[in-house]
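Let's practice the habit of predicting before peeking. Look at the sequence and jot down your guess about where helices and strands might fall. Then scroll down.
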Amino acid sequence: MLAAMTCAPVLCFTDRGLFCPEGDFHIDPWRPVDRALVTHGHSDHARPGHGAYLCTAAAAPVIRHRLGDIRLDTIAYGEKRGIGGVTVSFHPAGHVPGSAQIRVERAGEVWVVSGDYKIESDGLSEPFDPVVCHTFISECTFGLPVFRWRPQAEVMAGLARWWAANAARGVTSVLSAYSLGKAQRIMAGIAPATGPLILHPAVDAVTEILRTQGYALPPATRLAPGVTAKTHPGALILVPPGAEGTSWAGRFGPTETAFASGWMALRGIRRRRGEGTGFVLSDHADWPGLNAAIRATGATRVFVTHGYTAPFRRWLAEQGLDAGIVETGWQGETAEPEALVE
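Done guessing? Here is the structure:
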């Protein structure tokens, strides 16, 4: 385990976040800093209180929506920018729309901070683009061999069958999914012919932002007092985790709830959540994805963060890599609804 303040040639590991001394910036810091480079808009990576922000142009609208009037600059994917004594560039991470890996180069030494990522193209987010580097900082939210995702098309087909079966019984379907990324991925991947789509206000707000940016998303109705089972029979309602049983649910008569998450691969968590149905769908890389991504970078040194860090570090060391653990304030995809970020 690395100490709270450990410095390497390009980045320091500090109690505020990953810090680049020669560029005088932090990457996804979890405490206020003067200058933050941000990989994407989830709240464990894009936090309030920084003096200035830099993110991709595609991530900026959601980050502004979440953080308000901030000093924010944008950068295009692949654009190189000199900051102090280093050169930085942002590259698609495939996690959610606008998400990025951040490449930092100093005197020929290249580090890449992955943020969160998945390697399966979801048809909505910019596809993951592996970046060759010497040192790779990788998430490992699902860093155990038990986590192996089925192809997205199979998961979406199963979700569509569940929705259709509920609608045929006169039951409203309520599906929990992250407000940024997961919900829109489901919207883009499931045929809406079964019935109407209804979006919780938190989901709808982000969806409208992405829609105005040009992301292809089907029409949907915002959840409001006049929207009921009578006005929208056979609907699929997309809600943030933890919002399934709030006051609006009574307007839709009998409902069937489900949760879309990589954690649904574990039967015990599905039982603890009390879900009748769980769909194994994650915006994070599974075990094969993590290993494939790391191999593609060509990195000989890998630091892992948030998730199954200890066993995954051991595995990488057994493969001959110089592997370590970085403690961060990032959460990844957590198992309990009250901890899930939007």
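How did you do? The chain is about 20% helix and 25% strand.
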